[in-house]
Design a protein that fits this description.
Keywords: Signal
CATH topology: Serine Threonine Protein Phosphatase 5, Tetratricopeptide repeat
Largest sheet: none
Strand content: under 5%
Oligomer: single chain
Radius of gyration: 22 Å
CATH architecture: Alpha Horseshoe
InterPro entries: TPR-like_helical_dom_sf, TPR_rpt
Organism: Novilysobacter erysipheiresistens
CATH class: Mainly Alpha
Shape: globular
Number of domains: 1
Protein name: Tetratricopeptide repeat protein
Pfam family, one: TPR_19
Number of strands: 0
Order of helices and strands: HHHHHHHH
Structural class: mainly alpha
Length: 176
């Protein structure tokens, strides 16, 4: 009887484990490569119209601080500096994009996508910033595709996001 009890307990534990399916392997995510792809998507062509609003000098200082921190690999500190800048200027699409990229470097895909979508909603519909926003979404959806049964959010597929990114390029008006 004393041997039977441990054997039964072991069998019960093995039976419980048999019903658990292992999680599917996650695609490998290289945050640095993703951010490099995003920044490359945001380079302006020579014949492209780019409009840049004037910025707050305090926000500019925080952006420079965040850039220096990112260069040192201190991504959490860079994100904190960008959060301070967003507290000053919460509706700056370029600043939202920089914070989305910081979120990617911290492997926070949900926050990166949310920030990029917010920047798009604010009104960045064309140009290099628009491409960066959509490329951020492409990078997130490439790693974490939308589930087929996810009807709560009408998120596009990575292919849809690529088409949106490509539609952001608008040529400058002809000059005479």
């Amino acid at each position: 009887m004393k041997r039977l009890l441990p054997t039964m307990a072991l069998l019960a534990m093995l039976a419980a484990c048999a019903g658990i399916e292992p999680a599917p392997p996650q695609p490998r995510f290289d945050a640095v490569a993703a951010v490099a792809a995003i920044r490359a998507a945001g380079t302006a062509g020579s014949a492209e119209l780019v409009v840049k609003p004037l910025g707050n000098p305090q926000v500019g200082d925080l952006r420079e601080q965040a850039s220096a921190l990112q260069a040192q690999g201190r991504h959490a500190d860079a994100a904190a500096a960008l959060d301070q800048a967003l507290a000053i200027s919460p509706d700056d699409p370029a600043l939202l994009q920089e914070r989305a990229e910081a979120a990617l470097l911290l492997h926070d895909l949900d926050d990166a996508e949310r920030l990029a979508r917010r920047a798009i909603a604010i009104g960045t519909e064309v140009g290099p910033q628009c491409r960066r926003h959509w490329e951020t979404i492409v990078q997130v959806l490439t790693v974490r595709p939308v589930a087929a049964d996810d009807t709560a959010s009408p998120a596009p597929s990575a292919a849809d996001a690529r088409r949106q990114r490509d539609a952001c390029t608008v040529a400058a008006p002809p000059r005479y």
